[in-house]
Amino acid sequence: MVSYKEILFKYRYPRNEEIGLGMGSKYVYSPIAAVFVKLCLYLKITANQVTYSWLTLGFVGLALFLTNHPILAIITFQIAVMLDYVDGAIARVTKTSSMKGLYLEGIAHHFQTILVAIGITFYLFTQQNTLVVFALGFSIVVSYLMTSFITLSK
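The structure assignment produced for this chain is given below.
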């Protein structure tokens, strides 16, 4: 069985330092994720199952925003972010990285970003009751989609 320290240092997201994910990644998400990786390995949960879980949490977070529970929505999205660290580590530890998993992860990232933007937009729209907020949120989602498609087409 892989130790906590091995998961934390050997199997973590390889580009943490390279792309500068910052203090939160190094001191908050990675250590918590390592505990969840150990648990998932013990329970024989696959990396793709974890990806589906955090994608599902994105929809739960959206539902919480839409039902006027912003604090719970933010907590749910933060758990989903932490689980994003878990799936990659599981794939590296178990040597089960695949093109399907990378594709699933990429799609899940796009959905998660869009769900957060939509959730925040609708929550702020219900609080402010002004179309400016709705228009701004809509433009953020459209801009994100456009840049994603441009990036994917390269």
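Interim note for the steering committee: The longest helix spans residues 99-128. The chain has a mean pLDDT of 85.
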